[in-house]
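Predict fold of SseB family protein; 142 aa.
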Amino acid sequence: MDSSAHEDIDLLLAKAKSSGKTEDLSALWKAALSLPQWHFITRQTATIEDRKPFVGVMDCKPWAFLFTDRQRAQEYARTIPNGGFVDESGNVLVISTDTQKAIDYLLALAAQGVYGLRFNELNGWFSPIENLSAIIQHVHKG
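Predicted 3D structure, encoded as tokens:
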């Protein structure tokens, strides 16, 4: 992803946070949904087949953590001491997935009881997963 897309997401996020307007939040979601891939962090495991996108608990609810680019995913993973995200050589394993496949995965997680999604944790936004389909419909009709 090029740096202008990073900056666009940051600018849209700042605008949505400061204005609180629905159209600004819609613009942020539209930018996120138009990315070719979404990125997940995963804990280091003995076999790569056992690695799954990270789901963490906040406010007593399970949340899927995802990122608009690999760099943000790596930065967040490094902020969690003893989180199991950084291997002995200092690498963070990031799972990059086609955006539509990531959406399908998130919807499947919701069916398994995962409450919400957190984009770009540290400086990002979040939503209950059950709202994702409505968000997508809203953004694409606009």
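Residues 36-141 form a domain with the Trna Endonuclease; Chain: A, domain 1 fold (CATH 3.40.1350.90).
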